[in-house]
Amino acid sequence: HSCPMVLRIAELTSFGAGASASTHQPNSKFTQQELPACKPILTPKWVISVFLLVGVIFVPIGVASLLASNKVVEIVDRYDDACVPSNVTNKLAYIQNSTISKTCRRTLKVPKDMKQPIFVYYQLNNFYQNHRRYVKSRNDQQLRDASKANETTLCDPEKTRDGMAIVPCGLIAWSTFNDTYTFQHNTNNLSIDKTDISWKSDRDHKFGSDVFPKNFQKGPLIGGKTLNESIPLSEQEDLIVWMRTAALPTFRKLYGRIYVDLKENDTITVTLDNNYNTYSFDGKKSLVLSTSTWLGGKNDFLGLAYLTVGGLCFFLAFAFTLLYLIKPRKLGDNNYLSWNRNSAGH
Amino acid sequence: MKRFVYINDESYQNDYCDNQISNTKYTLWNFLPKNLWEQFRRFMNQYFLLIACLQLWSLITPVNPASTWGPLIVIFAVSATKEAWDDYNRYISDKQANEKKVWIVKNGARKHIQAQDIRVGNIVWIRENEEVPCDLVLTGTSEPQGICHVETAALDGEIDLKTRVIPTTCIGLDSEQLHKIKGVIECPIPDKDIRRFDANIRLFPPFIDNDICPLTINNTLLQSCYLRNTEWACGVAVYTGNETKLGMSRGVPEPKLTAMDAMIDKLTGAIFLFQLAVVVVLGSAGNVWKDTEARKQWYVKYDDDEPWYQILVIPLRFELLCSIMIPISIKVSLDFVKSMYAKFIDWDEEIYDQETDTPAHAANTAISEDLGQVEYILTDKTGTLTENKMIFRRCCIAGTLYGNESGDALKDIELLNAVADNSPHVIKFLTVMALCNTVIPIKSPSGTISYKAQSQDEDALVNAASNLHVVLVSKNGNNAAEIHFNRRVIQYEILDILEFTSDRKRMSIVISDSQSGKIFLLSKGADEAILPLAYCGQQIKTFVDAVDKYAQLGLRTLCLGWRELSLEEYLEWSRLFKEANSALVDREWKVAEVCQKLEHTLDILGISAIEDRLQDGVPETIEILRQSGINFWMLTGDKQSTAIQIALLCNLISSEPKGQLLYINGKTEDEVARSLERVLLTMRITSSEPKELAFVVDGWALEIILTRYKEAFTELAVLSKTAICCRVTPSQKAQLVKLLKSCDYRTLAIGDGGNDVRMIQQAHIGVGISGREGLQAARAADYSIGKFRFLKRLILVHGRYSYNRTAFLSQYSFYKSLLICFIQILFSFVSGIAGTSLFNSVSLMAYNVFYTSIPVLTTVLDKDLSEKTVTQNPEILLYCQAGRLLNPSTFAGWFGRSLYHAIVVFLITIHAYANEKSEMEELSMVALSGSIWLQAFVVTLEMSSFTFLQFLAIWGNFAAFYVINLCISTIPTAGMYTIMFRLCRQPSYWITMLVSITIMFF
């Protein structure tokens, strides 16, 4: 094996000598800008085939997505208006009055068979969890680490209460959603599983198992849910779910799961505590029961988008083919060059 | 304004600076402030600094300040390091020069000191092949005749040896005396003119007499020259340190800005205004929304009474959100690709001149795009279009034309016979040819004689004379010359040299025949400078005809004459000449006037005709470049008829039926004005006809026109595609460039000699041909090439590619920045116009600096058309010239594209990730990956050719995006912990990506 090595060194030295003898650089494909390159030209045939191909791929995906979306059975029940007694004129005063019992009963009809697991969401409309002032108002260190309980930077304006740090601090935690639901299926109680509704990674790494709520919701203005001070944050799943802020003003958050199959035309009675204030800003509250597929919940958008794009591609492929057949252009014909056309026009 | 230098006198030495050379821009202490100050003079940098400072205010910053500070500091550090490195290298070379040991005389004894300790007035000793450490006035040399030879290549690029002589008053001093010499030199304050030194010297008794002796540049040794062929020389330091002629001429030339750079700056300004508009509109909308809606939203908890500055918070947040509209990466990217363009030029084998072993070189790495946008080429003739290899071809002596049949006078039997017969006219003619010049003959040990000449014409004449057996054998300093003629040795004493200047257009020498003691004046020069000086009654018609005839053949003519002087006349004149030569004010003018007093009533001996061949490929090159829409102007110092002949030969103009030449001439203002008016009228009328019109103007008329009728001439310049300007001076050349520049044309000036330097520096692009007239032009130029024909490739291939590549790169940089910014703006509409950033800091920083910057850099390898196609269809260059690839409307296209892409990415994202999926971090990553996918495909679509490097950069970068984000997703403390893993598991994510990219089809 030593032989090739010697050769190579000899090559290198002779190469070096050659380079130094002349001041000129040894040329390579790179320095001469002559690296082998592929030069795709968008010929009509290529363009038409690409459009056809995209169409062929997209339409089936679109169909599959739409089918998946249609398979999802979803019950959406808006209850914010309905759960305020009709004789109440000032809804804001009603919701802020803590002495009144705000229990409300709703009856839902199952439109189609629903296979377990059935996801129970609450949906808020016109609620800006993504507002600049709101979304930043939290302190992740405090949530994770018991020793950082006094770390409340960024938590303005929910930092401290009577000089003591609030745990968990910030507007997001303070305004945690606090409506509660219980379900009855026909006449039996329908148990709702509220474990594992938050992300496991959040429970394990973002919210400490030794961090307990302190000074929370002790102010004059109660924002939302009150937390049990003996349960660590990592087990306060509603809080964890709420603190995964939504990027859009309309959003759903998981409340729990129902592990019972529901039949078409079953009735479900929901007893809910209507505590959360959406009346001051015309927000809507809805309860959502939904099944799920490989694509997630009910969402026709992707399916429609794929069908549209696929259809457009087919149309364009067709149009180009026609154009190509009716008025073919020779590839690389110099007569099409602008200066040649101009001189012909003279 | 004078400086008095006292030789060898310590008491005056501290009046002037020492000889410490400093080319450095910075010192250790002022580097940081000065460099920062320089960098912050750029608008872009000020802008980024402002943004970075605003980001420190946590109330308004949408992202971590590091996302701007990081790139900003990197960019600053990179350019500061580059500056520091350059400056350090300069410091090292300065230090070497400063610490070099030299011998000086101190207290009558020689001492070895460092070069930096030389003071004005010191006597410095230099040995053969040593570099001159400062500007010296020569006082002694090893040669008994008091001459020495220097090589001035470092100063003016001329490679011949120049003779320097010691002032007459110092002649004959031995080295003992030179140690003790005292005196005073009166010289001008330091300037940068390396051709002038109007001073005088007076030695104090007891050294000779105390006569004032004039000094010229010929008595000096300038810094950076090398002493050659002389054992030693010594001189008095007159200018030291940075005050030497070399030091004064070093100045930083004004940086040239390409048309593209100007356009990019303009577009940046427009984007900045757009950004301000967005800030104002969204800022006020945000404030309105806050007061009407946000106050009702109890969970946002706005205070009812806020400090006044709260009204600024939302607009400032938007300013910061939108700050990425102006891409921070564009400067670095442009610098990188520009230096690559320059490297490609340096490396190009096809514009490497085998003959002289000169590769092309791009000295200015920043202006390659301009090459593709050239509209006017102003070219010198001699040495640029022609080879500047002068060969004596024909002559006309006393009415007889030699060399007519064979085209080579040296082979003309008649002439050879005439020489053999000692025909007096011919002998006189040849004697003038051999003597009337500044050529230095150098005798090699083997006995052959070679000539070192500053002018190629003189070289040709001396060589021709020697071939005709009148051989200039030796020349010692400025006194003795020896000529061999038919085995006879004739000694002459050279009394005076009346030097050539471009105003006089002739030179003469006064010699005396050592045998007979007769004194002669020998003159040679341009025909119009010599023929009028003929004595009364001499028939000069044959000469005029001969000049015309030769000029039509494209030959350069010189007129030779002589006159015998009486001793009295000479002595009288010599006194005046000496006086004029020692004048400190207006010396040049005074000398010229005195010269004129001697140069009259000449006996015209004949005309010499010298051929200067066209370079290879010149006509083809001009043809192709004209096809590509470039207009040519030829600016030459040569006479009209020669210039026209050369122009015809090299396709610059066409002969009669196809083309027409319009002459602008005249001696008086009125004549010139009428002539100009007439030409202008013809131009206007025939501009629609497919006839090639060109105008010819000479230096005299041009001078009048440029001072009086500039507007009319400007109009003419716009109408005319071709022009020939002859007999123009260097400053007129520069003026013409300036005139075309003022009409908003992109100009390229190409030349090879020192007289082209001003034109080259003035033009948008200066190209120098490293030719036989030295490297002066090539040094001053932005590009230097070995041959004129390489210009074709430089423009059509390098210029065009550079333009296309930069056009894409710069607009793409804005496109990708706008894309991400528009997504942020769109997001603000669904987040209560409060200025929330959809993307996290890391993503934003990496997006601009990394994900979107690297793939597009490979555009330096992109070739839209093959080199062959471009050279076959040079008309394609019109696209670059007209700036079709980068202008407000193409930019608007990119702007619209980014808006469209942003809207589509955003809408698809928020619809596909609605309801239960609308988690902030996830949605942000979906939008970001959508943009990244789109980027990869847009770059792919916009590039025309793909080498493996492009492939690697685009898709490697794409893969890197996922690898990096997956890595970040494993960090528990990061905001996007697990996000990327979650997304990659969702089929809906991939389906969303796929549909995002298809929008680029529509």
Automatic annotation (TrEMBL), chain A:
InterPro entries attached to this UniProt entry: CDC50/LEM3_fam
Keyword Nucleus found: no
Keywords: Membrane, Transmembrane, Transmembrane helix
Regions that span the bilayer: 46-68, 304-326
Domain of life of the native organism: Eukaryota
One GO term describing the cellular component: Golgi apparatus
Membrane topology listed for this record: Multi-pass membrane protein
Localization (cell): Membrane
Family stated for the protein in its record: Belongs to the CDC50/LEM3 family.
Protein name: ALA-interacting subunit
Organism of provenance: Aegilops tauschii subsp. strangulata
Automatic annotation (TrEMBL), chain B:
Catalytic site positions: 380 (4-aspartylphosphate intermediate)
Subcellular location: Endomembrane system; Membrane
Binding site for Mg(2+): 380, 382, 752, 756
Residue intervals of the P-type ATPase A domain: 99-160
Reactions mediated catalytically: ATP + H2O + phospholipidSide 1 = ADP + phosphate + phospholipidSide 2
Domain P-type ATPase C-terminal: 778-1001
EC number: 7.6.2.1
Enzyme class: translocase
GO cellular component, one term: plasma membrane
Chain segments annotated as transmembrane: 43-60, 270-289, 818-839, 894-914, 926-953, 959-979
Keywords: ATP-binding, Magnesium, Membrane, Metal-binding, Nucleotide-binding, Translocase, Transmembrane, Transmembrane helix
Positions that bind ATP: 380-382, 458, 500, 524, 556, 636-638, 727, 733, 755-756
Cofactor(s) needed by this chain: Mg(2+)
Gene Ontology process terms (BP): phospholipid translocation
InterPro entries assigned: ATPase_P-typ_cyto_dom_N, ATPase_P-typ_P_site, ATPase_P-typ_TM_dom_sf, ATPase_P-typ_transduc_dom_A_sf, ATPase_P-type_domA, HAD-like_sf, HAD_sf, P-type_ATPase_IV
GO molecular function list: ATP binding; ATP hydrolysis activity; ATPase-coupled intramembrane lipid transporter activity; magnesium ion binding
Every P-type ATPase N-terminal domain range: 5-69
Membrane topology: Multi-pass membrane protein
UniProt similarity note: Belongs to the cation transport ATPase (P-type) (TC 3.A.3) family. Type IV subfamily.
Protein known as: Phospholipid-transporting ATPase
Organism: Aegilops tauschii subsp. strangulata
